[in-house]
Amino acid sequence: MGRILAIDFGKKRVGIAVTDPMQIIANKLTTVSSHLIWDFLKDYFQKEDVEKVVIGYPRQMNNEPSQSVLYINPFLKRFQKLYPDMEIELVDERFTSKMAFQTMIDAGLKKKDRQNKATIDAVSATIILQTYMQQQRFKQ
Asked: CA 103: distance to chain centroid?
């Protein structure tokens, strides 16, 4: 069984989270600059056995895609071209940034640490991954 990697893609930064090899626990991994994501993925896929990639896909309240898909869709197309055999799942990422911020407050992070957008992006990716894992368990 391979890991599941989650991506919270943004214009400037990409939050990344990953499961353990048994796909039980979701952990925040890192945040990388958007222009470095391809190098990061290449290296990570060479080092780790990744079974599936979960990508946050933003939607509006009416369930229509949000404006952010204008830069996420090109990322998805390139990903599918570079990794045609990798399974991809899209997960609604509405409110993940707000949930990440609240999670950081609940965890007792200081205000200065909560203002670090890279941390918010990595926590958002973790929430996306946890959401996906819960949906899969519910389906079973």
From this structure: 16
Give the pLDDT score at 102: 60
Least confident of 6-20, 27-41, 61-75: 61-75
Domain 3-139 homologous superfamily, CATH:
YqgF/RNase H-like domain (3.30.420.140)
Q: Where are the chain's structural domains?
A: 3-139
Cβ atoms within 10 A of the Cβ of 3, count? 19
Residue 121 dihedral angles phi and psi, to the nearest 5°: -65, -40
DSSP letter for each residue of 10-74: -SSEEEEEEE-TTS--EEEEEEEEGGGHHHHHHHHHHHS-EEEEEEEE-B-TTSSB-TTHHHHHH
Distance CA 53, CA 90 (A): 9
**Closest C-alpha to 38, from 65, 62, 69, 7:** 7
pTM of the model: 0.83
